[in-house]
Each structure stands twice: as structure tokens, then as C-alpha cells.
User: Which sequence fits this backbone?
């Protein structure tokens, strides 16, 4: 997926919000924004991928401010709020009569978790509305390949599950549980270092994912989405060897659509901006479960 014109405004807006979280030093804030504008003047072109520009933005901000995890506080709050809602979400999943129904419900909960993202212009979420979003997730499902995804998973042996945000990873545990209940081996991958509010090994510990997944690895990099040239040898080996990949969030959707995929990928995310919604030809603020083969 390539950038649209409004991606420039989003990158700047998110950058300003992130800089504010990263430092209280006015001079560093000014320097970070000036360098970000310079970066965009060179890199913002029709061939650019939004997630790649987001990676460069975040690395720039971390370098200039010296803060390696500007969203650390927000990530902690998201995890805490999600853990409080987890029993409710689990009850919704377990109300399914069949394995396939429980799988679908877990997919919906995982997609609702993708709502938890900060500083996207026009995207607002409140923790108080999450319970309602969980209950009504099916109403917002505009691309529904869950049946096909289930069939492919059923015929697989080993799954790689790529997580997205902190907080969201708590709800991902429900889907990983269902995949495990189907007799599958599930390897979960988080980011190798902080980027935006994406989950890292610290969030694996807090969410309880480490006790559910068969194995947890990192991508080996702090890139938004998938950056094949940057991932670790361990990640590449796992990615090459699994039968199917579950990829959460817009960053993976933006990057995976750029590659010729060698195996089935299930994209599960919320359309939190117009460019992503436009690419998939659906409205904004909707849930997408798309199987890419």
C-alpha cells in the first residue's frame, strides 16, 4: 500500500504528539519537528509506504529526544484496561456453540483490540466504549473472510501470530487460545524494540501471552509492520517455516500488501484512517478480516 496525500499530515500530527510525550524540552521538541519535516521533504513521494515513513519518524524522534519509548505510559494503561475487560471478552468467546463460532468470536475480539491506538487524526477511542465495541464487533465487520481463514488454519500445523499494539495483545490471547484448541502450534512475534505503541516482550509478560503461546519471539527490529530486510535470522527462519501467518493491525496490512506472499496471511485490523480504508475499498472505522494467499 502506498501513501495518499493526507498521510503527510498524519505523519506530522502523530510526530508532534509523540514528541510531546517524549520530552518536555522545548528545544528538543523544535529540533525533532524540524528534522521530521526535513525527512518528509526527502521521503514523501508516491512510491512511499506509510508504515515505512512511520518507522523513520519514530526512529528520528527517539534519536533526537533520547526517549526510547515515548508511549510507555500509554501502553501500560492500555494493558491494565484490557486486562480488566478480558473476562468479559472471554465470556463472549466461550458463548460460541462450535469451535468455528468460538474462533470467529475470538477474531472479532482481537480486531476490537486494534482500536487502541493513539494520535491518528480523526480516530478516537475511549476505554469506556470498549465493552460495547466487543459486544457489537460483528456489526462493524465489512470484510469477512473468517470462514476461509478458519478453513486454512484447520489444515495448518504451525501458525505465526504477528501482534500489533499493547493492550490489544491482551485480546490476542483469546485468539491464540482458540488456535491452540484447534491443535495448532502457535508462535507469537512482538516487536524487537519500542515503536509507536506496539507490543514488545514486556507486554507479552503483562498480557499472559507467554503462558499461552508455544513460543514467543521478536521481529528483531523496531520497524512498523514487516520490514524483511531488517528482521532477525530467527524471525526469518520461523516466518519461512510456518504454514500460515496471522497479522494484526494496519502496519502489517500496509507492508504485507507490498510483497508477493508465499503462504496464506490473515489480516485482522480496524480501518483507523481513510487511506487504509480506501485501499481495501471499505468505510473508515470498520473491522477487516482478510485472507491473502
Assistant:
Amino acid at each position: 500500500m502506498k501513501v495518499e496525500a493526507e498521510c503527510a499530515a498524519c505523519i506530522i500530527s502523530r510526530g508532534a504528539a509523540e514528541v510531546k510525550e517524549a520530552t518536555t524540552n522545548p528545544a528538543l521538541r523544535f529540533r525533532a519537528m524540524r528534522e521530521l519535516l526535513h525527512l518528509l521533504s526527502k521521503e514523501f513521494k508516491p512510491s512511499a509506504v506509510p508504515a515505512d515513513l512511520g518507522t523513520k519518524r519514530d526512529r528520528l524522534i527517539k534519536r533526537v529526544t533520547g526517549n526510547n519509548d515515548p508511549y510507555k505510559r500509554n501502553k501500560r494503561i492500555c494493558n491494565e484496561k484490557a486486562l480488566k475487560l478480558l473476562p468479559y471478552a472471554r465470556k463472549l468467546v466461550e458463548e460460541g456453540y462450535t469451535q468455528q463460532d468460538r474462533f470467529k468470536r475470538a477474531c472479532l475480539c482481537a480486531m476490537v483490540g486494534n482500536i487502541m491506538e493513539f494520535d491518528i487524526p480523526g480516530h478516537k477511542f475511549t476505554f469506556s466504549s470498549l465493552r460495547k465495541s466487543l459486544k457489537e464487533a460483528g456489526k462493524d465487520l465489512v470484510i469477512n473472510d473468517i470462514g476461509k481463514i478458519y478453513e486454512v488454519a484447520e489444515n495448518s500445523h504451525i501458525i505465526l501470530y504477528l501482534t500489533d499494539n499493547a493492550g490489544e495483545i491482551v485480546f490476542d490471547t483469546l485468539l491464540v487460545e482458540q488456535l491452540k484448541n484447534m491443535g495448532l502450534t502457535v508462535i507469537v512475534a512482538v516487536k524487537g524494540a519500542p515503536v509507536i505503541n506496539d507490543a514488545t516482550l514486556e507486554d507479552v509478560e503483562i498480557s499472559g501471552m507467554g503462558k499461552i503461546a508455544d513460543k514467543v519471539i521478536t521481529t528483531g527490529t523496531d520497524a512498523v509492520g514487516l520490514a524483511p530486510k531488517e528482521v532477525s535470522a530467527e524471525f526469518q527462519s520461523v516466518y519461512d517455516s510456518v504454514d500460515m501467518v496471522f497479522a494484526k493491525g494496519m502496519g502489517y496490512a500496509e507492508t504485507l500488501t507490498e510483497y508477493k506472499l508465499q503462504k496464506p496471511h490473515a489480516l485482522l485490523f480496524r480501518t483507523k484512517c481513510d487511506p487504509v480504508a480506501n485501499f481495501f475499498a471499505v468505510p473508515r472505522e470498520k473491522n477487516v478480516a482478510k485472507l491473502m494467499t
Remarks:
- The first strand starts at residue 141 and ends at 144.
- The chain has two domains: 6-65, 72-292.
- The beta strands are 141-144, 158-162, 185-190, 215-218, 244-248, 265-270, 287-292.
- Residues 265 and 292 are 5 Å apart (CA to CA).
